[in-house]
Amino acid sequence: MIWDALIACYLFLAGMGAGAFALGAIAGWGKDPALTMKKVGFIVGPVAVAVGTLLLVVDAHAGLQNPLRFFYLITNLNSVMAWGVIILSVFLVVAVIDLALLLVKKETPKWLDGIGVALALCVAAYTGVLLGDAGAAFPLWNMAVLPVLFVVSAASTGIAVVALATHLLAPAEVGRVALLKRAGLVLPLVEGALVIVLLAVTAGAPGSAAAAGQASVAALVSGPYAVAFWLGFVVVGLALPFALELVRARKGAAAPERSVGADVAHDGSGKTLALVGDAGVLVGGFMLRYLVVMAALPVAFM
Amino acid sequence: MSDKRLGMLIDLSVCIGCNACTVACRQENETPLTKFNTWVESWDAGIDGRVTRANLPKLCNHCANPACVKVCPTGASYQAEDGTVQVDPERCIGCKYCMAACPYQVRYQLESGEVDKCTFCHHRTTEGLLPACVSTCVTTSRMFGDLNDPDSDISKKLAAAGDKAKGLMEDRGMEPRVYYIGLDETLGAEQLSAVHKGGNVLRRREEGNA
């Protein structure tokens, strides 16, 4: 195995951080801004992406021992990774400036938020493109599917981590962002569909990629990674959060006279359901990155 | 690109799987324990009801369109003037992107963190010598030379072989510059045994049975 759990952690943290920042920005834009949520997103975003980037540095042993070599990182702009370094760096700068403005002046310029959200999207997509550009060697790393799948998962995990913290810090705010309720139901479905597409495309890889593609899919659905895939990703990461979100949506609908946010916030079991669901999404988000990195087999695996 | 393009042609019909190339390469390049710049994969193959031994030497294909060079963020992996793919260890940070991108999986990481692989014995060819694996090959299965020079031995043999000379997994789009004669016959035959990866029988004493 060329890359391992450390890189999976990076892919997860970068996606989650990007999603958290984007949600934080969006939560602050409405007529009734959710300021705690915005603050949480603006803190989790750059911190998660920075920690993830640090993991990359730690994994690059030769660079770690000769740090000056990191200055070569943007010399080959044909390399997706060089662009990734630029994207991560610029995102971190913008996100940290935005956070500083939020903490000092209590508000942030919308145009800067907008740039940050655009960069967050690039960060999330880049984690997929990074693997996708090695797709000629690893059929599971499909350039057409992975970037979209990782963006969707970044949105899910970013929302989950911010919602988790907001449920604990300022429960009343959660219901204020209408986007969240729909996202909790739509994103798991989209993510599940994209994973099915990824597995189908990989299993049907043509020519010299056929054997490795089929073996990679088999490793996931019935091989050494089957338990992690079905239990960790499908059940805990997709089905459980989706089911809990359905239950909460029903409860909200049953008490329409109260605002949904207040309803869920003051309902102890509703809050527990939400926390469990959010934690499930985070577990699933990590499992997705871990499985995509670990279960992939190279075309030359004989 | 420059007008020189070094390549290799391996005639599988005369390779006997002796692994002299594997050993010569280790001696020449002092590759680390368990790492190989070239090796021979051997297995029992069935052709027309007979059992024969299939031998398939492997090494870096020094591709004309190498994914490893494209993905390398620092420019440590590069194409040299002679068309070969080389690694400048002074620029390598050990991100392993090249190892991931190579369909042939011929790259490995050194203890020090840098990535290494077959250089086509760059230190020898620049002095007018053949790569160690070629010069040691007991059946002259391996041929080496300038693919862009129509008068070189390798170009003549490639021209004579026509469609029969092929690279590994050409559909990966890397334009490999290691050609094989008899590749379709070798890979097309029924595989009757596990693949023995020449040289990889080496074990540490604590791992194997005493």
UniProtKB/TrEMBL annotation, chain A:
Keywords per UniProt: Cell membrane, Membrane, Transmembrane, Transmembrane helix
A Pfam short name: NrfD
Top-rank taxon: Bacteria
Transmembrane segments: 6-28, 40-60, 80-104, 111-132, 144-170, 182-205, 225-244, 279-301
Membrane topology: Multi-pass membrane protein
Location within or outside the cell: Cell membrane
Leader sequence segment: none
Family: Belongs to the NrfD family.
Protein known as: Polysulfide reductase NrfD
Organism, as annotated: Adlercreutzia faecimuris
From TrEMBL, chain B:
InterPro entries found in the cross-reference section: 4Fe4S_Fe-S-bd, 4Fe4S_Fe_S_CS, ET_IronSulfur_Cluster-Binding
Record keywords: 4Fe-4S, Iron, Iron-sulfur, Metal-binding
Pfam families in alphabetical order: Fer4_11, Fer4_4
Domain called 4Fe-4S ferredoxin-type: residue spans: 6-35, 49-82, 83-113
Record bears the keyword 4Fe-4S: yes
Record PANTHER family: PROTEIN NRFC (PTHR43177), PROTEIN NRFC HOMOLOG (PTHR43177:SF3)
Full protein name: 4Fe-4S dicluster domain-containing protein
